[in-house]
């Protein structure tokens, strides 16, 4: 039996969350959970240990970059792949996202089909890496 994959979406903009939810829900093998701010996202990541985190960079309170720093302090959570969602895609910012450990970047506005395809590829890739490095 195939294990269901889980994605934690941490995004403060309701319209972006809704677009992601609609696009991803069509994939029956993915379970979604949501957080609207960094602190709630950190709590849910600790409890749920999702297979992937989609993380908004600019949020009130704890930003996505600050949350990424917190994830990196935890040996288990730092292994969860993170894709940043942002409208800030200047070269220096992209380098900062990668430096913090993000495995990918989705630029706002985005095409929902592109996100679903990238998510599936990243989850498969991560699964293969786990098999190679148990």
Automatic annotation (TrEMBL):
UniProt xrefs under Pfam families? Response_reg
Asked whether the UniProt record includes RNA-binding among its keywords, one would answer no
Would the keyword Phosphoprotein turn up in this protein's UniProt record?
Answer: yes
Question: What PROSITE patterns does the entry give?
Answer: RESPONSE_REGULATORY (PS50110)
Write out the entry's keywords from A to Z: Phosphoprotein
Please list the GO biological process terms of this entry: phosphorelay signal transduction system
Record's InterPro entries? Bact_response_regulator (IPR050595), CheY-like_superfamily (IPR011006), Sig_transdc_resp-reg_receiver (IPR001789)
Top-rank lineage group of the source organism = Bacteria
Q: Which SUPFAM superfamilies match?
A: CheY-like (SSF52172)
4-aspartylphosphate found at? 56
Looking up SMART domains in the UniProt record yields: REC
Where's the Response regulatory domain?
Answer: 6-123
The entry's protein name is Response regulator
